[in-house]
Structure formats: structure tokens, C-alpha cells
Amino acid sequence: MTETANSAATSKTGKARKGLTIERVFSTEGVHPYHEINWERRDVVQQNWKTGETVFEQRGVEFPDFWSVNASTIVTTKYFRGAVGTPERETGLKQLVDRVVKTYTKAGAEHGYFATPKDAETFEHELTWLLVHQYFSFNSPVWFNVGTQSPQQVSACFILSVDDSMDSILNWYKEEGFIFKGGSGAGLNLSRIRSSKELLSSGGTASGPVSFMRGADASAGTIKSGGATRRAAKMVVLDVDHPDIEEFVETKWREEDKIRALRDAGFDMDLGGKDITSVQYQNANNSVRVTDEFMRAVEEGSEFGLRGRKTGEVIETVDARSLFRKISEAAWACADPGLQYDDTINDWHTNPETGRITASNPCSEYMSLDNSSCNLASLNLLKFLKEDDTFDAPLFAQAVELIITAMDISICFADFPTDPIGETTRDYRQLGIGYANLGALLMAMGLGYDSDGGRAMAATITSLMTGTSYRRSAELAAIVGPYAGYARNAEAHKRVMRKHRSANDEVRTLHIADAQVHKLATEEWAKVIELGEANGFRNAQASVLAPTGTIGFMMDCDTTGIEPDFSLVKFKKLVGGGSMQIVNQTIPRALKKMGYDEEKIEAIVAYIAEHGHVVDAPGLKTEHYEVFDTAMGERSLKPMGHVKMMAACQPFLSGAISKTVNLPESATVEEIEDIYLQSWKLGLKATAIYRDNCKVGQPLSDGGGKAKKDAADALEAASAVVEKVIEKVVYAPTRKRLPKSRASRTTSFTVGGAEGYMISGAHDDGHLGEIFLKLGKQGSTLAGVMDAFSIAVSIGLQYGVPLETYVSKFTNLRFEPAGLTDDPDIRMSQSLMDYVFRRLALDYLDFEARSALGIYSAEERQRHLETGSYEPLEETGSASELIETVVEVRGASAGRGASGGSAGRGASEASLETKEAEDVDETEIVIADKAPAAPTARTSAELLEQITGHAVDSPLCMTCGTKMRPAGSCYVCEGCGSTSGCS
Prior knowledge:
The chain is of the alpha/beta class.
């Protein structure tokens, strides 16, 4: 029987239950939230930068003046309803927010959620305030559908079911099609379907689940998600004990080999290319559902049984390690399959009496019953960072309880794509509250993402979020009743609540900031246990961590979901057109938090603007480097740093985490095996990996038919603005030998306690021609290797290899010995090679060449701190001869709208001012490069490529043609908000 809120609004005694009293926290009594905001009109024009085609245009749309151009563009193009150019078209944020919020408020009042009409009005104002101030956002289907003439679908995540019958398989195809058409994605487990090693009742051999995947894949490729030009989002899961598991593991691996062969034969095999449709299984993420039994067999090196689907008997045994190795080899080759850890998932299941959890949504964060759905919402964590750089836990909890109330109300009026999904969702009322901007929050607080402090803060915030959600769920149960399936699963649900509380008790806080959050989380979990015992719960599930791709941009988040910061430099669009390069606003805040003065902050930010990383930034302590580690770039996070962060947060989530562990191209199969094994041991519910450049079928920056083979090619293609004519040139290098008598320099050095000598010899014109390195005892292996290395470099120099090339290749290499040196110009070194080539650069390269490589002497760094310039005074050119960089520091002010001191600045600097850059509450450092580094850089991903010279391995957006960036387990375009498959 499906429960409704109306029927539950009366207690067992027949007395009407009093609704919620909504406290006014964010909005102001007597003032509508819209009246506290300055609004402005903007023109939204969106182009495909690859083709030059205008793909969208709507002029005069109304948004708050503090919303970025990017946010207003994405909301206008993605969420405004009505045909463009007609009176029915929405023209501003007010109409969009009213359409959604008023629908929620009306439904809440009709279903008995509010004690009085006044409480309903307060709820409306509070929800409106949070949305327009970008404190949170509902998932995309809410903005697409709520308050329109379309079905009121509010869920982004669906789990389907398929049985071992042709009727069920064909129904699977149909249900997926309807879900894709509506702009959402779905996942399911195919393990009930008989394997190709089993017999049919007629005596013939079964086709097996992999064969039926072909039809579903073709359907998904045909029905573009929501009518858009991107692939549908789907997840296919197979249990590890299914007899066809090896065939399943190899499906996409084989297809990737096919893609390479066809690409090399000249076919267009890019994502969206005209020939890619000949390749199968490309429209789904694949995951293997592994058990504790299997993982223990892997550890022990024992046999593992594959079981027939009809009888459950073992029909074949395999070596567990060999199968695990094959899974890892496939993931190394094509990023599929990921792993889902079945026993862990079901140990945290609140409804085991109803059925097991067998599958997930496409991004692996929603895990629940078959034929169910989940509506999501995510909070912007950075909005809750106070001026003293501590997290405002009470304010966060108040936002969570309001949002979780709204999410539950939506189930009362929501429509669903199938009757079974609607029935299960109304009976179990699964919700998925989560957050975005974790990476930015931790950086602003001076906490490294891959640090104990960073993980403790993330864990306590996640615990507080879920604890508050379940506390409000228990309060709602007292008013509108527990979910219909609660009575059957009451003991199991309460057991999982106790598991969450126990996990919270095990968190070890390290600072006052996380201790304050943890204290409130502990109080919330105590209330969960107490209220749950008395009232039950309104919701079977409460929280997940979703990718937050499009809605992350709607909230102007720097980072999506649980992700670290993508890069330290960003590409920012300006009101009225144009764009500028900015250094993340969280960086100066973090530096200030760590005790740096304004002068050093300015110098460090200027260095980041030029180099895109903090290595060797002037005045920055090496122990603080970890705070600025990012997903991409010079100091990219280690894979286990991602895994450990997920493990810190997982015990406090009803569902799981959408995240891909990124690995460098050089990663080995053994490393992937270790990540999968450690993820299981650390209690994750799911893990997916991606090794750079493992996928052929996605275009890099050139957008052509062949993926670039290396980062240099991709960078060159991205920067090209004129047609190149390539002539065939035969080049024969000539060796320029050193004179018999030449000037030489001997340098003794110490790196991390290791002593050595370097002798360098120069040509008559002063150019370096040879080096000799003395390390280790004569005759030792190390001494021999250094001799061979010295000869190789010396011959290269004499054949014309520029010293700059060697310096760029060998600096920043990291290996032991490393650390302090005895050289006043190079106080810290990451390795012997790093030191040697920095010293050679200082000795033999002119200032301009070294400056381009970011290498300065101690005197030059000191001069920069004193005068703002590295150059000697006699070498400083006129303003017209230099590429000027404007570094503008605006101090925090007591009130809104303070723009800081701008007196005395030139007209060219003032012209860079924009309205959105004036209204700041915190230090903002804007780097405006007046001579653009690359005319074709349109996104942060492309900007990072320009600065670092390394390609970002992600696809181009099919809407606007710019490079996307990773978000959870998919990709999102920061130009238009399109995603690569996740809704």
C-alpha cells in the first residue's frame, strides 16, 4: 500500500498532528528576499567556439548583480522554460525560482507540513533566499520540470530491474528509453539473466546478458538524453560470480582496441564522430559487483566459484587473482569496469527486509532498491565559511533541515517515468542531499585535501549534514508519518542509524574548527536515535555526494561535489563580453589564514598567475604546498589522496560518492589493483578509475578525427590561430665541438644531505657545451650512471639542443635525495636533477629565458618583494614593451559593496573593473593579462593547458566546443553547463 502525506497527517488517536513551525534564519521579516538584492539585465549569447556558430541568444535577462556571467548564462540556457523569442519564455531568475519555490510551498501546505500559513510564507522566503544567494540548488530535473506543463519529474537518479525473461528484457529497453528522453539516467544489474553457459528450457543455449547489452546500448545511443546532443547516462552492473563475468569485463576493452585500429585506418572515432557509432557498449558505465568473499579470495590467491543463475550452484571455478587482474587490466586500458562492493553496500542498507541493493544510478552515488528513484540537492559549502575562517556549523544545520523538508515535499507532487518506480519512491521516499565546493572550502581554511586535517573537516561536515537530515526526517515522521516501508524495516533502519553514530564517535578532530562541527554532529546523532525510536523516519535514505556539474556552476562553485580544486587559475567571463584570467579567490584567503602578510600574498598570487602552481613561489613555505594541491597541474594529488578522502566521508552517507580516481598515463595495472583493494578495505561502496589518455574515442583540443598523441601536440593545436603550411625539410644536425681550452666552472653542492660536484664548460660565446657530475664513490653504480648522463647531455648540447629544453624537462622532477641545499639561490630542491638544472639556468641563461621558466636568483626574488619586479632596474623596459599583469588586491570590508582602494590607478586598469568584481566580501585577487596568453583558451581546462604545457585529458563540449573538465564520474562544460552523461 502506498502511503500519502495526507493520510499520515492524522495520528493513531485520530487527533490532527501540528505541522512544522519554520524559523526565519536567512530572510528578513517583512522584506521579500528579492528586495534585498540589486538586479541587472544581461545579454546571454552563446557560441560554439569551434565552429563560430551562435547556438543560443536571449537578451535582457535579469539576474542578481553578484551572479557571475557563467552562472547566469548556464541558468538561462539550461533552465529557463518557454520557446526563445515568445512571450512564454522566462526572462529572469525571479520567474524561475518562483516557479519552483511556489510549487513546493503550495504542496507543503496542502499535505500538512506547516503549522500555519505564516510558517508556509516563511518557508517560501527562506527557500527563495537560499536559492538566489547560491547557498544550495536542487538537481537539474527540478529546474526543468517543476511548475511547468510537463510531468513534474524531480528525480535525476533511477534504478531499474530486469529478470530472466524476454518480456522483462524488452521492458528494460522501453523504460530506459523513457528515462533518457526525460533527460535523466538509469542503472541496473543484469545478473539475474542466465549466462551463455547455461541452457534454456527449450534445450538451447542462453544468449547471456552481454548480448542483450548491445541492444540497450544502441537504444541509448539513438535516444539522446533529454533531446540533447550527448550520450545518455546509464550504468550496467554484473555480479562477480556470474559465469559471463569475464566477457563482461572485456567488452569495452575489446571495443577500445577496435577504436584504435579504426582511428589509425583514418576513420573518425572521436566522441560524436561519424564513425564511432560502429563501436558498441560506449553509452554505459560498467561496474562489477564484488563480494567480501571474492576480495578475500583475491588476497589469499584461492579459487572462486561462478554460479548458475537458475540453480545458484557453482558451474565453474576461476582463480580469483587472475580475474581481479583482468578487471584491473581492462580498467587500465579503457577506464571500465569500476567496482561496487556488495557486502559494504548492503551492510548500510536501511531496507533489507524489502530487498537487497543490487545496482546504482549512472554515477554510482545513489544505491537503493530496484525500481526506485532519488531526487538530489546540494549545498555550497563555501557559503558557510565565516570571516574568522571557521565553518558555521549551526547555520549549515539550519539550511540542511529546511532543504531536506523541501526535498521530502517534492515527493508528494512528483511524477515518475514508470508505475513501479513511482510506487517504490513514494513508499520509501529516498532523498539525496549533498554538497559542492569541498575542495575550495578546505583550501580557504588552509587545509590540504590530502591531509588528516582536511579529511577530519570533510568527515565532520558530512556527518553533520546526514545527522541533521535524519533528525529532521524523524521530526517529519511525527507530523506526516514515517515512510510506508518503515514498519517492515524499523529495526534494520535503526541499526544503520547506530552505525552512523558510531562512525561519528570514531572521528578524531585535529583543530578547534572541526571540533566545533563534530560537537554539533554528535548532538544531532543523539537526537536521531532518540526521535527515531519514538517517531520512526520519513525517509529511507537521506544523503549522497553527487557530481554537481551544472548546478555547481549555477552556485558559482569553484569545485564540484567532493572534488579537490581543478586548478589554481581560472578563466572568468566578464559582463559586457570578454574574459580574464583569475587566480582562485580562495588562495589569498588561505595564505592570510596561514599568516602571510599582504606583500607576500601578492607575490605568491602573481607567481601562480604566471606558472599555474605554487612550486618555488616566492616566500611560500614548502610545508604549505599541500594546501594548494589540485586535481591537475604541477602538484596534482596522488591517487590514494582521492581514495582516503572518499573513505573519510563514506560512513556518513546513506548512498555513495560520485568520484573518479584520476591516474597519470604512466600508472601501472598493479597501481589500479591496489586502489581497488584499498578502497574495499577502507569501506568505500564504489570505486572508479581513469588513467590519462586511456580513451581514444574523445577529442582533445584540436577537435579533429585523431586524438593527439602527446600534450605538446594538443597544446600546439589549441593555440593555433593561423593556418600552418608545413613543408618537408630534411634536417641534418651538426656537432659544435668545444675548443681545446675553454672556460669552466666548478660548483660544489649539497641536496638533502647528499654532497656532489658539477663542472660545466662553455663555448667562447658563453653558451654551455658540457657538464660533468661527480656523485658517489668512483666505480659505484651511481657514479657510473652520472657519468653516462653527463656525456649524453653534453653531446646533446653540442648538437644544438637548447639548454632551456633540458631545464624545462629536468626541473621539478621529484625523487630522493631532496630538500634543503647549501645554495643561497636555490634553498629547496625536489631532487638532484632539479638542483643541477636550476643552477645551470642561473649560470648560463639570460634573465628573459630564466623568467620564462620561472627561475630567479635570491637577489631577483628579493627585488620582486620590494619593487614588484624581478628585473634589474637597468633592464626594465617601458610599459609598452612589457606584457603587463595587473594585480589588484581588494581588502575585506565590513559591509557589502566595498571595492577597496582604487585611487591612482590608470584608465587601462579601471577599464578592467566589472560590477561583479566590485561586490566582494572577502579578499579577491584578479589577474588580468592584457596580452592574452592564448586566443583560443575559453575555459579553465584550456587555460591550464596553456600555462603548464600539459594536455587535460577530457572531451570537448558538443554544444559550445570548449574543453570540459572532470566532475564526479563524468565531465562538465564550464562554458555552457553541459555534461557528458550525468544529469
